[in-house]
Amino acid sequence: MTSSDSIGFVCGTKGDSVSFLVNKDVGLSFGQIVRIDSGERTFYARVVNSESSSTLETIEQLREAEGKEAFGPYSAYRRVDVVLFLEKRGGKVRSPTFNPNYRDKVYATSEDDCSILRLTGELEVGRLRSEDQLLGSVGINAEAIPRMMGMFGMTGSGKTNTELILNAQLIDHSPQTVALIFDFAGQLLEGKEIKPQRGLKDHPLFHSKVQYYSAKDGKMAVGLRTLTPAKLDTLFPDIQPPQRRLAWALYRHFGSDWIEKVQETYRTDGNISIRTQKVVVEALMQKLASLPHDLFPASNYTFVESALQNICKGITCLLDISGLRSEDQNRIVCLCASAIAEHYKRIWEENYEEWHKLPTLLITLEEAHEFLDPNKPRTIFSDIALTYRKYRVGLNAVTPRPSRINFDVFAELWTKVIMKTELKKDRIYLTENTPYMEYSETEIKMLDVGEALLISEPKIKFAVPIKVAHYPEYLEKRGSADYKLPDSSRLSEMDDRLKQLSGQEKLSLE
Ligand SMILES: Nc1ncnc2c1ncn2[C@@H]1O[C@H](COP(=O)(O)OP(=O)(O)OP(=O)(O)O)[C@@H](O)[C@H]1O
Ligand SMILES: [Mg+2]
């Protein structure tokens, strides 16, 4: 069978759902995209259901099963239900305005269809899956970054690999794009658990375009003198207004080294220099004492400043926060993300020209459910997801538990990479709250490692079945040479200059 042969014909239509009877020996799968040619229109649809049955009476079926009688090729059939999502008429591609006719022919998608579906993008994620074939490249655009993203899938479904692929592409597109990555498990540098093991350090631009910060080598310190009372909400989500007021009073009294001073006074005198209720003092002092000295030393250096400067220059920052206690992980993550996101916001407000020069930022947040759970204190990440689009700051929420992500935030994630998810609660949450996914609940359960459904509105308005590129293979294909530099304009400039020079030489020789 060639890709131009039809795989069946339409046997019924109703609204946007179409049924067709499949020819013998045709392989199909749930979620696969098929094309239906219908006069001047071409429709694209997804396989959502399938049933196989017999045309015979029960008694005839029994006789055939025993081999007593043969009823020929028309005794059994397979019917497949598909849902339309796209229509092409003339040169125009849009949502379906009608449906196909009875007996219209159905085809498996081919490379030609890939270009009609407009699936390519500058940040290539993988390739279109069609049954057991991989067709053209599928990617998202840089404009999708500030429209917020999510990557969901159970353990071992391929989330870390997808993070590596996307962030590697962001590094490739620096300084147009840049990434801030919070790595909770300490996997991404070396690609632990990726087989064969490859991490961001194996990316050819790692040394020029990536800065690695790790809590282990002491590079991740946040000096106490950089902590103004305004940052206490980020550090201690449960802080009460009286404690906040006390902190401001102490800050005004002691200045930037207020935390060290007040801790010293409290240690020696058993009290502090400001009169206030004892419970408030105790509560605040307890909070300050919970900041570990190695992460929060008495200094005025903060790695956040260095990360911010790197991000602004298009240098991706990989923050390995593995090994920290979970409350310290949360503190570091929130402090760093809010400083950087707020910088983008401030530059947008105060120096719009300068803001244009900032790279589009994607913040990858693993364990996103810990920061976006509606039952936990609100963090900077829900603000980023809800309001930072216009500053070109995007969030990539990565989690195996999408149902624990606050609904308002979930609705704002316009790009979603959905990988295998078995837990019913999560599957229902994904399909009920994502446009064009209402028929895909079964499919999500059946995905294999590295297989995913991709939606990236407004460009890709339907769930595209993809196979995410495997990071080790991506590196191999990409090669070590940075063939993007110098760019062609510079080369042609150099060419012109050489020509000029050789012209001058000739002149001077004459
Ligand atoms: N697209 C892919 N193609 C081929 N192999 C893949 C692909 N994606 C992931 N794998 C392999 O599957 C394994 C698990 O992948 P990965 O670590 O990305 O899963 P995960 O979802 O991050 O798991 P966890 O929840 O445990 O962190 C790895 O060995 C990886 O090499
Ligand atoms: Mg992982």
Task: Give the gist of this structure.
The chain has 510 residues and is α/β, with parallel strands linked by helices.
Helices and strands in order, then pairings?
Elements: E1 8-14, E2 17-22, E3 33-38, E4 41-54, H1 58-65, E5 76-89, E6 92-94, E7 105-108, H2 111-117, E8 123-130, E9 133-140, E10 149-152, H3 159-172, E11 177-183, H4 206-209, E12 210-214, H5 232-235, H6 241-254, H7 258-269, H8 278-289, H9 303-312, E13 316-320, H10 326-350, H11 352-356, E14 360-365, H12 369-372, H13 380-387, E15 393-399, H14 407-412, E16 415-418, H15 424-432, H16 441-446, E17 451-456, E18 460-468, H17 471-478, H18 488-509
Parallel strand pairs: 10-15, 10-16, 11-13, 11-14, 12-13, 14-15
Antiparallel strand pairs: 1-2, 1-7, 2-5, 3-4, 3-7, 4-5, 5-6, 8-9, 8-18, 16-17, 17-18
The structure holds adenosine-5'-triphosphate and magnesium ion (MG).
Adenosine-5'-triphosphate (ATP) binds at residues 153, 155-161, 193-195, 400, 449-450, 468, 470.
